[in-house]
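Sample intake sheet
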Amino acid sequence: MPAIVQELAKEQTSPKTKAGWVLGRVWQVTVESVEWASIAAVEAVMNASNGAQIGDAHPIKRYAFLKSLTPKARAGSRLIWDVTGAYEERPDRQPDEAENPLEEPTTLSWSSEARSVAESKDKDGKAIVNSAGQQFDPPLTGDRHTLVATLRYNSAVFNPVLGVDFQDSVNEAATTVGNVNINPRQGKILEIGSEERFFEDLIYWEVTIKVGLRRETWDRVVLDMGIYGLDDDGKIVRLITEDGEEATEPLKLNGSGKVLDPQTAPAAFRTFRVAKEKNFAALNLSTL
């Protein structure tokens, strides 16, 4: 039995892009087998009398052309699919023209994400502590914003292992993200994924990568403090307070495991590289 194709929506309008308005049509497709069901659903729409081919003009907007067909299985069923067709309005094109999506350039957008962090330094790099030289408990927190670059491009292939390998990694060397040059560990992969798309007889992937940028790098910086330190032989010992008593609360350290003398040295901080470092060159992040 051939697939059954029924159009659910004639037209729906979504936000305007650089090229023009994007229009959509949705078809419900019932396929006869779960094997290659997503591809079968798309092919059914492309072959049906009430369907559409990639590059076809919209039935109402004659200068809008079908750009992609995206299948999604109905909840609880592997045989019933909703296939969404995205139309892009291009006044500069004629109805019989089509484009190869693999030739489209990478798109770039910028946004910001807020996060709450424990503050360890003030604007001058000095430790944030109370009048006794101790960290606040709970620590002083503040809002920080991360600049986020979102890049989208089309690729003939996409390996999910790439996402697993690069997720939460930082750049090990200087690189370019979008149109911005960054130093090592200033960029972090926040999200990497893709969606399967169709163009005529071509199956391709729309890849989305989000990169968070920080001027101060993604290293973790903490005030050097502890109840234990090092003696002159490098052995771990319980620290002694100015009163000659064993420390019961963390004391500030000088960066070498000894009690800090605030009269002779500023507070010491420890820097940790907690994120894995990767070569971002494999991700095609530049738009320059």
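Comment: Residues 72 and 82 are 5 Å apart (CA to CA). The chain has a mean pLDDT of 83.
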